[in-house]
Amino acid sequence: MSSSAASKAQPETVALFVSDVHLQASLPRTTKAFFKFLRQHARYAKQLYLLGDLFEYWAGDDDIDDPYNKQVLQAIRQVSDAGVAVYWIAGNRDFLVGTQFARDAGVTLLPDPFMISIAGRQIALAHGDAQCTDDVEYMAFRAKVRQQGWQQEFLAMPLMQRKAIIANLRAGSREAQRSKSCEIMDVNPEAIASLFAATGASMLIHGHTHRPACHQYERDKIRYVLPDWDCDSESPRGGWLAIDATGAASSHDVDGVQR
């Protein structure tokens, strides 16, 4: 069989899943790697799911005209314009992405969690932070900032004031993480079990924890944890999950190599 024939025999890629890219202008190699992913891989899938923390932070849709943010938006829009259905679940860094960004980028905003079906497989999607229930301090903060009233009040502030507040919050978060155990900042097993039970899913895909893995449970349940991205460090990392038309899942590193 020729190489072209072998390539044609491969099942079609239905969906790609990526999270925790933490895009920011100060990480040009990470940005370049993500744009390469969009051009060389996402454009050839039927669906692309962005599962939170695509940006290091998002202060509000009135920051769309920032040159760097506009560049990211346009790169995503090119994928959407190519006929790919692009979906977005908010992360803990970019939950303020709103309807203007969604319209301009050509993405559909989804609630967390969200259920999809591929090849008869029921798949639950989440960012993952809502399942880190052992981190009581974070869960209280999350509950506050996800309230509509808090968001309306925050977004009414001048953009530069919001960015200053976010910078202080990020600094405080980094300091707090130094005193927290790895277990506290990971998902809670009971929260994961509850999500499986509530959704009836056989597969769960999430990010947030920066601990890429494939966890197999009894009764044919499986949980994929997506990697975070950082191609500006000495040891570049990143990647995504793909699901093909048969329902088979495969993990790929930042260069597209299947792991």
From TrEMBL:
Required co-factors: Mn(2+)
Membrane topology (UniProt): Peripheral membrane protein
The UniProt record lists the keyword Kinase: no
GO CC annotations on file: cytoplasm; extrinsic component of plasma membrane
Keyword Cell membrane set for record: yes
Pathway(s) served: Glycolipid biosynthesis; lipid IV(A) biosynthesis; lipid IV(A) from (3R)-3-hydroxytetradecanoyl-[acyl-carrier-protein] and UDP-N-acetyl-alpha-D-glucosamine: step 4/6
Enzyme kind, highest EC tier: hydrolase
Family label: Belongs to the LpxH family.
Protein's recorded name: UDP-2,3-diacylglucosamine hydrolase
Organism: Noviherbaspirillum cavernae
